[in-house]
Amino acid sequence: MEQIKTFLLLGSLSVLLVLIGGYFGGSGGMLIALLMAGGMNFYAYYFSDTMILKHYNAQEVDPREAPMLYRVVERLVERGNLPMPKVYIIHDHIPNAFATGRNPEHAAVAITTGLLELLSEDEIEGVMAHELSHVGHRDILIATVAATIAGAVAFIANMMQFGAMFGRNNRNGNPIMMIAMAILLPIAASIIQMTISRSREFMADEGAARLTGHPEWLQNALIKLSNYNGRGEVQGATPENAHMFIISPFEGKNISFGNLFRTHPTTQQRLERLEALKREFAAPAEQNKLYDRHYV
Fold this sequence. Notes:
Blueprint: H1 2-24, H2 26-55, E1 59-60, H3 67-80, E2 86-90, E3 97-100, E4 108-112, H4 113-118, H5 121-136, H6 139-165, H7 175-212, H8 215-229, H9 267-295
Parallel strand pairs: 2-4
Antiparallel strand pairs: 1-2, 3-4
Helix pairs in contact: 1-2, 1-6, 1-7, 2-6, 3-5, 5-7, 5-8, 6-7, 7-8, 7-9, 8-9
């Protein structure tokens, strides 16, 4: 279901791009904007992992330096039939973890010392399974495609606003209407982009539960992280980097309209879905018990 939703949302972004590109500059204007945004995101796709890891001063570790963490990751990639990613530790008290890299063969997972101190080994395994699910689902690629289209929408919208302000409405458009579209269309594109991000978070949660076989491990980790975030503002968190946190750093602080721009589902929504998976996993076990009682 989440994959279908992602496909439909990406299609909506594409349609939005085609509509405003055709309105303002025809096919030529749309192509130029798409090429510019595509070039920027091509660079980000291939080098964003290096930039992100340097930004956080992440240090690559080996099995001798982080035996528990390495053991957890090795166990998960073996179960998930994934290539072994590079493993990084970030010396930061704020509990967090993320995955980066353009595909499973060029992936890295990073975790802060704050998260290592906050969670048990089982809970860390639940979190790392979530991040490795992002890798397996190629979410970095999907996020880059969404960002490319949303960036092109924003670029064309800025051109529309510029043209309207200087009277260059050569396609018999109303300048006021063009300015309104220039303001509203990037907002619409951002909402769609954020919805894609939330959809992929649900998929990663489910992937983590199926990879570990223990949805409660990730549940417990999410509860601890939510409680931590509830103590006050998470230092260094901004709307631009919120997607790099395993749960929204603004959990519980968004007004209802702001939920449209959430990069993550609410923790309560994620806990409820994981609870449903617990019941799903428990059902076959209960059926086996009934079978054993009847025939043994």
